Known about the structure:
Elements: H1 2-41, H2 43-46, E1 50-53, E2 56-60, E3 94-95, E4 105-106, H3 117-134, E5 161-162, H4 164-178, H5 182-191, E6 193-194, E7 205-207, H6 208-221
Antiparallel strand pairs: 1-2, 3-4, 5-7, 6-7
Helix pairs in contact: 4-5
Amino acid sequence: MNNSVTNSARLLWAGLRALLVLTVVTGVIYPLAVTGVAQGLFPGKANGSEITANGKVVGSSLIGQAYNLPLKKGQETPEPDLKWFQGRPQNGLGTNSVNTRYQLILSGATNRSGDNADLITWVKDAKAAVVKDNSTADYKVKPSDVPAEAVTSSGSGLDPDISPDYADLQVHRVAEKNRLPVGQVRKLVDEHTDGRTLGFVGEPRVNVLELNIALKELVAKS
């Protein structure tokens, strides 16, 4: 009997010691080590890839933003503010209807198949809007000029980038709305076009938030 109690107590103590050691190692030492390495080697990425303007954090290079006009009375969907470069559609976004104490936007895909009637209507309407919004007196956009990402949302609905083709398509409209020379705006796009990662991964891209920050600075100088 005494041996059984002694063995049980020894096993219990060994288990408690293992729990304490593993708690300290995995719950304190390892997180601190990983955080320290991340902050030392990749501070920008570790802190959320923040983008600053005029000394203030205005967003993240990993999360897309909407550039819309304020909602008018009776409107459910805001109109795009056409003086800014526009990102991809955000059809995958939804609102938080579970815990209404918090004003949250939920990300996700539309989960609609390629032959879904609603999706087809969205794409057609989006293409017509892109053609209309980006055509100016001396520049006409054709439906065949509209790239795929201009009329489809990403899997998360928060893609921060667009293709150089879509950015170029918006140049004339942005120049006209901001009373800037087309050449200056196109140069801005070229300066904010990133190539493929490591030279072969992915596609060339333009970060819309970074481009619009540069556009705001250019307008302020003009």
